[in-house]
Amino acid sequence: MEGFGPRIAFELPIFGGIPISDTVVNTWIIMAILIAFAVLASKKLEKIPKGFQNVTEAIVESLNSLTVQTMGEDKLFFAPYMGTLFLFLLLANLWGLLGLRQPTADINTTFGLAIMTFIAIHFFGAKSKGIGGYLKGFFEPLPFLFPLNVMGELSTPISLAFRLFGNMVGGFIIIGLLYGGLTSLSNMIGLSFFPIFQAGVPIIFHLYFDLFSGVLQSFIFVMLSMVFISMQMD
Amino acid sequence: MLGLVEFGWTFVFQIVNFLILYFVLKKYLFKPITGYMSNRTEKIENAFKDAENKTKEANELYEEYKLKLENIKEERNNIIKEATRRAEERSDEIIKVAEEDAKKLVERATQDIEREKQKAVNELKDQLSSLAIITASKVIEKEIDQQTHQQLIQKFIDEVGEVTWQN
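YS: structure for the whole thing
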């Protein structure tokens, strides 16, 4: 192993070769899972929900109500975006449980999502306040604070992206090192063919870095996106 | 192997991927299920409202019918009372009429009896007198003395008495 960057899965043979990293491949798998879930969920809707429909309705309902609670009744139309974001981040962050590289442990993914939040903040802010009101916001509370306001706004996506990326890549590296270390430990007692210590010990780390941190970070990312957008709009 | 913090094509791919995922999930998960649920909520609300209205209506009808039933009871009582009263009146009348009739009948009977008696007496008197005349004529035909006369009359009366009262 030579560093913790994303590996290149294959190269598209156009524009002189576009590298496709394992981040993208994992994202495609997650997308396939979510799309399959969505299509299955909405294929057969019954008047009285049963089994699977109950689950999907509970998921959609809780995402809708989370959006309404955080952003307000009038911003329910953000629910699909925020819901997609939450479901995607949840699956992406828990991807490490399968021993695969989390798509969120790649700055390209988190920054891409943060940029979309950034665009949403300013697009919907300007739309709801009008261009004048939106621009006026940069000169408040005092005009000479304009550069600071701009800096603040620009720092939002960066902090969003790096918070998630840092958490996930940190967990990914620590767990990677742990597996390496446990393999070495197994080698030391002469079990090079069977790294016995890899069984059991990493569970605690997976629980913390993948499950706890993963779920928490997806929630934080979505909540912050909602709060920033609704704050700029109100 | 790419760098740990290195921007590249992945950035573009991830944005495109996420937008695709967003549109697909919006179309296939969020829109239909949210729509379906709000639809159902509306339906349930309507059903509840409907049920409430129906209950109210039923209660109103119930009250109405109860009132009607009470009226009917009262009416029935009135009718019975009226009928009883009329029957009593009628029976009184009938009894009175019957009594009157009976009285009249008795009166007439008494009168009839009286008349018959009178008639009988009169007839008797007539017969007596005619017989007397016959006797008298017989006596006149045959001149008889006082004694014989007395005897004859006595005999006649005796005879007549027996004969008359035998009929």
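YS: worth flagging: The mean pLDDT of chain B is 87.
IM: good catch. Also Chain B touches chain A at residues 1-11, 13-15, 17-22, 24-26, 28-34, 36-37, 40 (CB under 8 Å).
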